[in-house]
Amino acid sequence: MLNTVAFDQIKSVDARTIDDNTLHTRRDVSRDSSFEAFGLDVTRDLVRAVTGTSTADDLNGKLTGSDALALHTHARVPELPALAERLLAAYEDTAYQQHFDFIDYLRIERRPDVIERLQGQLLAALRAGALDDVHLAIPEPLNWLDVAGIRFSSQRRGDALDTDPRISVYLRTRDAAELSVERLRRDYVEAMSASDDLQKLQSWSVYRCLVFETQDGEHLYTLSGGEWYRVALTFKDEVYDFVERLPILDLELPLASFGVREEVYIQDAAAATGTLPLDQRLVRRSVPDPIEICDLLTSDGTFVHLKKRGKSSTLSHLFAQGLVSAELLLQNPRFRDEAREIIRGVDPAFEGLIPDGRPARGEYEVAYVVMTRSNRDSPLTLPFFSLVSLRAAALRLENIGMSVSVGKVNEARPG
User: How is 84-150 classified by DSSP, letter by letter?
Assistant: First the structure.
């Protein structure tokens, strides 16, 4: 469809922002415009449908295309085969790459034969215990303050709860020969309530929680939220290169013990580094939604935000939290006042780090730290979509004058 639409005559765009929590949007403009007018981030937003004006004389008027094409035509029934041939030729053309080359960065994979092959690779990795490119992530937001722990429906009721969903724990509940796509869809990850006598708070199929990546031919394929995505290797390399060039946080954080909770590690890290722990100390009065200033505040003005790699949708929350906190620090005097009040209540020696007025460009640094036990060969051991989110946040932080750094804390393995 994009092969026949004028690049500056687009009326509407449907998009899906790919993240741990998927966002669907439809954006319309008051008059036909170029794609840039819709304000999409082409590195994160998967274009699902476009409505625009055709450039072809034989395809007059508005066209809407997604998996199918919708158009109005005065063609008579005998003329329909020729119209179908014309549309097929347009579908196979590559003219769209002149103005819409980003479409090839990221696509949902729908070909049954390809999906079957990819599912075979997933099952082979699970059966062999080759887990560097596999982990579990709860696919939607969850109030972790009310989560006593995580279990699997395939576990015995008396088994101990875990702090987050671990694929190694799940695999111990099933023989390798039992594993199939159907089994992964029938077994569930369960979050147990801390406030309701360990009752099940929410559950998701294991398949929907799986995050898996594999390179097949000229593409990187990733399973996320139960869907397969095809990523151009050039785009993957671009994202990897950006993250690998980010400065490393200049703070020597201690090793994390196996299974340690974030809030416990943050307190331990603060004691070991002389930083101020601000985890779960929320700014409330000056903002629409409560937000943490950061997890650790250093004496030279670095706002450190830390999350576990495999803990549900918290990675996207990590990047968003660092960005929103920084924007509020720059733009909202009431936020700065309340932040100083919170910091004064913890350690008055750090209060002066929050300025009265708007900070100068480069005066402060936002650091993203990932706690991981993975050996995955990717920046910070993160899956591709998390790296895309990190890049988007880092670019916005740099644009508003914040320095950005990253760090990794290794979590000790059991034994």
Answer: HHHHHHHHH--TTHHHHGGGGTEEE---HHHHHHHHHHHHHHHHHT--TTEEE--SS---GGGEEEE
Dist CA 133 CA 152 (whole Å): 21
- Residue ranges of alpha helices (H) inside 150-205 are 167-171, 181-186
DSSP 381: G
Which tops the pLDDT comparison, 408 or 95? 408
Output the six-digit token pair for 48.
Answer: 């699902």
Render pLDDT for 252-287 as a digit per residue (tens, 0 to 9): 999 999 888 889 999 999 999 999 999 989 999 988
The strand order across the sheet containing 219-224 reads 106-108, 227-232, 219-224, 210-216, 134-136
Sign of the dihedral through C-alpha 30, 34, 38, 39: negative
- d(CA 287, CA 331) in angstroms, rounded, equals 12
| Cα 209 to Cα 223: distance, rounded to the nearest angstrom | 9
The predicted-structure confidence for 109-163, as pLDDT tens digits, reads as follows 989 999 999 999 999 999 999 888 888 888 877 777 788 889 999 998 888 898 8
